[in-house]
Design a protein that fits this description.
- By secondary structure, the protein is mostly helical.
- It has two domains: about 325 residues, no CATH class; about 110 residues, no CATH class.
- Helices cover about 50% and strands about 5% of the residues.
- The strands form two sheets. A five-stranded mixed sheet has the order 4-3-5-7-6, with helices on both faces. A two-stranded antiparallel ribbon has the order 1-2.
- A hairpin with a 2-residue loop joins strand 6 and strand 7.
- It is globular.
């Protein structure tokens, strides 16, 4: 171990690469890294994240805003950044789109990158508190097998970027103040997911406070840095397309997606073979925060060691830890929402203060804001261990507990490996059964087999859903068909959308169809019986009015 700590400088990075790839393979099967492997994306919410990317390929490379995506959603939702499509990966792949098949995907590669960065950055963070490479490396595995990190394999892959929160801790615990690092982290987070960005600002303010207290910056510099970050963030939001241009940042549901007070110990049935599942209230899943069996055992052991033998945490480090605890606790309080729950009981509820309502609309899945405290618990545990007089004991104990935690989560690893490598088998069995599989089958095997589709793809520029709404799962095969034919659509799944623009789009459709002012560039997918009945009265020698492969289609002037 002394050799590994002092002689071999490459060993930590070789170890990080090997363990990250091994864990990636254990939990996904590994095949998803290939860009032409898309079936695993076509079953749940990820199908729409993928669809966003397909449409974004057809936009100009130089445009404003950068991630404008008008072909997907048209009038009422037209930006890539608000639909979990991982903008930074979309931009990179867009550069190389000429070398890739149209139906390529980057989500598998992204997941691998997140495994690598989760291990690497946690190692770098731990090195701030210990020079022992081996101790830092084996403990960093806990960060990579953290249940809150792996839980995002359910489908919100952008949220596997939790390593950015670790990077923010790394900046905070570094000597001096670096505005450039904060600006880069903020930009990177907005290029991935706005929830991650939202977690950075409280940590940034803690960094400002501590570095001013420590004398690295003065009062005027503090306010100047805050002003720069506000102006910079506003500019980034506009340039990337977070504000304006048809979409909305706000949405309801803040009190639904909360952190439960038992979340740190709730296995959610999947994450432990040993510990029981605890009761919870519906929708608490966004606040999932099980610490992991190995970590929980280690907390008890380290706490006993700390109180029996004492600890040598310096006054300066205690001050740093106390200051960073404040934003972590504040974010945890926000994650509890205005409906505080313990198990399946609502302890109390209250009206959200007016000044907080904008935040609750932007960050409605508030349970995610428990993540900084979660990782702070991991970090504090390591700091206590690294200052123990029994380091040699921990060097043998931690690998055992890592192995125990991996064994204890084998139900999760098996499920996710099946979900990502044998997707049809997964949905036909444990994912939902035969009925769910049959519903999803058209996503993998297109039902659009009639000859009319070829002409529709050539003759029309838009595919209009009558009437557009937030989510239209059954029409996904048509959305995929439209993307392949560079046709704009007004339907799909949108996490954020402008309700006013949606009403305007519906009014426009009414004017076109009910007033016989048909758009020659649009073909219509009809889901309203009353509209279909009226269209059946139109001239069938001029227009295509037909149920094709299970979809009611009105194609104006098709025979013209």
């Amino acid at each position: 171990m002394r050799y590994l700590n002092k002689k071999n400088m490459l060993f930590p990075y070789i170890f990080i690469a090997i363990i990250s790839v091994a864990l990636f393979t254990l939990f996904t099967g590994g095949r998803i890294v290939f860009v032409d492997d898309i079936d695993w994306l076509l079953a749940d919410d990820s199908r729409y994240h993928y669809l966003n990317w397909l449409y974004f390929q057809n936009t100009p490379f130089f445009q404003f805003p950068i991630f404008n995506n008008p072909l997907y959603g048209m009038e009422f939702a037209s930006t890539l950044v608000l639909n979990d499509a991982i903008p930074i990966m979309a931009l990179v792949f867009k550069v190389f789109k000429a070398l890739l098949p149209f139906e390529s995907q980057y989500f598998g590669l992204w997941i691998l990158v997140c495994f690598l960065l989760q291990t690497l950055i946690s190692f770098k963070l731990l090195k701030k508190f210990s020079s022992d490479n081996v101790l830092c490396l084996i403990f960093s595995i806990f960060f990579t097998i953290a249940p809150i990190f792996l839980w995002r394999l359910w489908g919100h892959y952008a949220l596997m970027s939790q390593w950015i929160v670790l990077a923010a801790f790394l900046v905070y615990f570094s000597e001096g103040f670096s505005l450039i690092k904060w600006l880069l982290l903020i930009l990177l987070s907005f290029l991935i997911n706005p929830y991650i960005a939202g977690m950075l600002y409280p940590i940034f303010l803690a960094d400002i406070y501590y570095k001013r207290k420590a004398g690295f910056i003065n009062k005027n510099e503090s306010w100047r840095h805050i002003g720069i970050v506000i102006l910079y963030s506003t500019t980034v939001l506009i340039l990337l397309g977070y504000v304006g241009f048809g979409s909305s940042l706000g949405a309801g549901g803040y009190s639904n997606y909360r952190f439960n007070l038992n979340s740190f110990f709730d296995t959610d049935t999947l994450w432990s073979l040993t510990l029981p599942n605890l009761a919870s209230v519906a929708n608490d899943y966004e606040g999932f925060g099980f610490l992991g069996l190995g970590v929980i055992i280690l907390i008890f052991i380290a706490a006993l060691d700390f109180f029996l033998a004492g600890n040598s945490i310096s006054k300066e480090l205690r001050s740093k830890l106390l200051i960073i605890t404040i934003p972590c606790i504040m974010m945890l309080v926000f994650s509890l929402t205005n409906m505080v729950t313990l198990g399946d009981e609502v302890l109390w509820s209250y009206d959200v203060p007016i000044f907080l309502k904008p935040l609750t609309k932007i960050f409605r899945s508030a349970g995610r804001f428990s993540w900084p405290l979660y990782y702070f618990i991991y970090l504090l545990l390591f700091i206590i261990i690294s200052r123990s007089g029994r380091i040699k004991v921990y060097l043998y104990l931690i690998p055992l507990l890592v192995s125990l935690q991996l064994y204890d989560t084998q139900k999760a690893s098996s499920l996710f490996r099946l979900k990502h490598s044998e997707v049809k088998n997964y949905w036909r069995t444990i994912g939902g059964g035969e009925k769910v599989y049959q519903v999803l089958l058209p996503n993998w095997e297109s039902p659009l087999v009639s000859s009319e589709w070829d002409n529709i793809g050539k003759k029309y520029n838009n595919f209009i859903y009558v009437y557009p709404k937030k989510r239209t799962d059954r029409a996904f095969p048509i959305a995929l068909f439209a993307a392949k034919n560079s046709m704009a659509i007004n339907f799909g799944y949108f996490s954020r959308y402008n309700k006013k623009n949606l009403k305007g789009a519906i009014s426009k459709i009414d004017k076109e169809l009910l007033d016989n002012k048909f758009n020659k560039e649009s073909v219509y997918l009809i889901t309203e019986d009353s509209v279909w009945a009226q269209l059946l009265l139109q001239d069938k020698n001029l227009h295509l009015i037909k149920e094709i492969d299970g979809f009611k289609i009105f194609a104006p002037f098709y025979f013209n």
